Amino acid sequence: MKDKLIFVNSHPIQYFAPMYKRLNELGVPTSCWYCSEGSLKGSFDQEFGVQIKWDVPLLEGYESRFFRNSSQKSPEDGFFSMINMDLLRAMFKEPKSVFVVHGWHYFTLFFVLMLGKLCGHTVCLRCEMPLSQEKLKTGFKQKLKNFGLKYILFPRIDYFLYIGTQNRLFYKSFGIPDRQLLFCPYSVDNQRFSREAQALLPTKQELRQQHGIPATAKVLVFSAKYIEKKRPLDVLHAFAKLNNPNLWLILVGEGELRPEMEAFIAAKALKNVVLTGFVNQSKIPEYYAIGDVFVLCSGLGETWGLSVNEAMNFNLPLVLSDLSGCSGDLVQPGSNGYTFRVGDVDDLAQKLKQVLLDNDLTETVASATIVREYSYDTVAKSLGTLVKPTANQPAIR
């Protein structure tokens, strides 16, 4: 067992930072090395199309180090936009630790994975790729990538931290044995969101009044960027097909598809549709509290969908596209929701009708129950087996 975990990230991430804090609270010594300050000062998000500065703590409860990035490129420019030679040198000097790297898509991340074992560290990879989506990719570049993963990168990894079922199947497709697989699910801060649910759900009708939504209405909530991968127009088309004056649709987000969405709303004379614009982390729970169902329409490239985890803490039933990376893990069909064929607006409209108008869900296992396993505590149980527990803290069981 090593003395501590060191995560390596491109920049502070609003979903990961509270996990590092929680791991320390549970006696799993955790720190993070960052390739850039990125989100700390705020930056222009190309997909949202607005300036973003997260309003939740990003450096609280864990040690962090920032390393100079010698690249002049922006993060959107790809592999060579993160080159942190000081970080790689520090890895050689660091006492034997467990390094957890999120992906290989930047120069620095790739070479931490390649060189970590040479330094005597335990190397863990946590990527997002679902097998269902990888099987749809073809061509020479995909074959070259698979060859490089199987014969160059993966042999240098000690443990593969799978985030869900499809991600586990991705690793298994490369012949990774079970002894090298650890379940470290993609999670949000369930503690925070469940507290918000307890506080906000009793005020549901008051929150609806603020948006002019009648108490008897049924509300669909969509929370994602207005970009092609997220397919927000699909839910608008399905909403138009339902054509029910008692239904409301709230699309939480922002992005380049807004003009097209507004044009569709105007052309169809749709009522009861709200485009919120960008909503920061502290305010987004209010929209989940208003809702009656959560919808995610994403296609290729949606490797998980963490907004689904957020909504589940409010016990919302789900209607998710079958290509969303989380759909096979978080939806129990007929119990807490349904999946639909990605891009099939008729199927989406039918599933929404079943949930909102036909009330045919059994809720044998509710969303709030399912999401408990997809938590930072579950991550701590897995990674706690690799490091010595903090003094005065019990080992995770």
Secondary structure blueprint with pairings:
Elements: E1 5-9, H1 17-25, E2 30-34, E3 43-45, E4 50-52, E5 63-66, H2 85-93, E6 98-101, H3 107-115, E7 122-125, H4 131-134, H5 140-153, E8 159-162, H6 165-172, E9 181-183, H7 190-200, H8 204-210, E10 218-223, H9 232-242, E11 247-252, H10 258-267, E12 273-275, H11 284-290, E13 293-296, H12 306-312, E14 318-321, H13 327-330, E15 337-340, H14 345-356, H15 367-370, H16 376-383
Parallel strand pairs: 1-2, 1-6, 2-5, 6-7, 7-8, 8-9, 10-11, 10-13, 11-12, 13-14, 14-15
Antiparallel strand pairs: 3-4
Helix pairs in contact: 7-11, 8-11, 9-14
Structural overview:
The protein is an alpha/beta fold and 397 residues long. It has 2 domains: 192 residues, Glycogen Phosphorylase B (Rossmann fold); 182 residues, 3-Layer(aba) Sandwich (Rossmann fold), CATH 3.40.50.2000. It is 34% helix and 16% strand. The protein has 16 helices and 15 strands. The strands form 3 sheets. Strands 5-2-1-6-7-8-9 form a 7-stranded parallel beta sheet, with helices on both faces. Strand 1, helix 1 and strand 2 form a beta-alpha-beta unit. Helix 7 crosses helix 11, helix 8 crosses helix 11 and helix 9 crosses helix 14. The radius of gyration is 22 Å and the shape is globular. It starts with a strand and ends in a 14-residue tail after the last helix. The relative contact order is 0.13.
